[in-house]
Design brief:
252 residues, mainly alpha, 10 helices, 0% strand, TM_pro_TauE-like, Probable membrane transporter protein
């Protein structure tokens, strides 16, 4: 995949990307995770997957600095440290994959990751707790983070398999996603992906991330009875299918 991201963006493209961030932020507010799972496939419909990954990572870094002071006392520190150590190993492998694959192949890969995450949600996949399994889950999360800005599925599967209380699990995942985003930034810089248009797009859409997250939290309180899970899964499935369709058409 070409490292050059200096492209001319139309007003329609900017509006589409900002809308994608807003919709994905609503999902984040509803479930506490899943922002990149929705944002990257949606953004990659209008831009390259590389740009979608970089924008998602930048936004997760920005909102992470806001979340850290509020959540740092709630995290499961040992689990967070072990997952992060694994992510530090896996992230460079993901970055190399992102750099090597073509845009259309990456669209299909991203869609497959999202669909695999959905299947794991349906099947309620859990990883038994333990230091080695936490390290392995962190490595896989780092691989997904560097490749597609999606560290969520392995980390979520591991945390849900422990006896960690729900509030602590949510806080730990939120800070872990922030850490994995920070791990990817040096690789983006080395590969020339942190260019001005992408940085400006992330800055422009950040307020929509905040607003959408708050709106998603309100919807979570309104839906209740588990209906929010169905809404989130439907949203993720739709974005994955759209990204896969665009990628497959590009490969034909």
């Amino acid at each position: 995949m070409s490292p050059s991201l200096t492209v001319e963006w139309s007003a329609a493209t900017v509006i589409f990307v900002c809308s994608a961030v807003f919709v994905s932020a609503i999902l984040r507010g509803i479930t506490g995770f899943g922002f990149a799972l929705a944002a990257v496939p949606l953004i990659s419909i209008a831009l390259s997957p590389t740009q979608g990954v970089v924008i998602a990572v930048l936004l997760q870094c920005m909102i992470g600095f806001r979340d850290l002071p509020a959540l740092r006392h709630l995290v499961a520190r040992t689990t967070l440290m072990t997952l992060s150590a694994g992510a530090l190993i896996g992230t460079p492998l993901g970055l190399m994959t992102l750099y090597a694959l073509s845009a259309d192949v990456m669209r299909v890969v991203i869609a497959l990751i999202v669909l695999a995450a959905l299947l794991a949600l349906f099947k309620q996949v859990r990883i038994n707790p333990g230091p080695r399994r936490a390290l392995a889950a962190g490595m896989l999360a780092g691989l997904f983070s560097g490749m597609a800005a999606m560290p969520g599925p392995p980390a979520v599967a591991y945390l849900l398999g422990t006896s960690t209380p729900a509030l602590q699990t949510r806080a730990t995942l939120t800070i872990f996603f922030f850490i994995t985003s920070l791990f990817t930034l040096p690789g983006f810089w080395v590969q020339g992906m942190l260019v001005q248009p992408t940085l400006l797009m992330a800055l422009a859409s950040f307020p929509l991330l905040i607003i959408g997250t708050h709106l998603g939290g309100w919807l979570f309180r309104q839906l209740g009875d588990g209906r929010y899970e169905k809404a989130a899964i439907a949203m993720l499935g739709a974005t994955a299918m759209l990204a896969a369709l665009r990628g497959v058409l590009g490969l034909l």
